Amino acid sequence: MSFTFIALCSIFLGFYALLSNFKKQKKSFNFRVLTALVCGLLFGGAIQLTLGFGSESVAGFSEFISVFGKATSSCCR
Question: Is the pLDDT of residue 13 over 80?
C-alpha cells in the first residue's frame, strides 16, 4: 500500500465520519445529500487534478470505495 492510497482512504473515512456526525446532529436529509455531493465533487476533482487519470493509487482507491459502498448498501437492506 502506498502513502497516497492510505491518505485518500483516511480523507474518505473523514468525510464519512462528518456525514455521520451530521445525522447525529439531526441535520436534514437534503443538507446531508448536498454536502456529500459537493464534498465528493471537490474530492474527486482534486484527486484527478493531482494524481491524474489512470494512476495506480486512484485505481486502488476506486476499488476500496466500491467495496465500502457495497458493504454499506447491503447493511441498509
Answer: yes
Q: What are phi and psi of 2, to 5 degrees?
A: -90, 165
What's the CA angle centered on 23, arms 20 and 24, to 5 degrees?
90
Query: Whole domain around residue 70: which residue ranges?
Result: 3-76
> pTM of the prediction?
0.71
Give the CA distances from residue 6 to residues 10, 12, 24, 35, 66, in Å, rounded to whole numbers and listed in that order. Answer: 6, 10, 27, 23, 16
Q: What pLDDT is attached to residue 58?
A: 78
Domain count across the chain = 1
Which has the closest alpha carbon to 8: 58, 70, 68, 71? 58
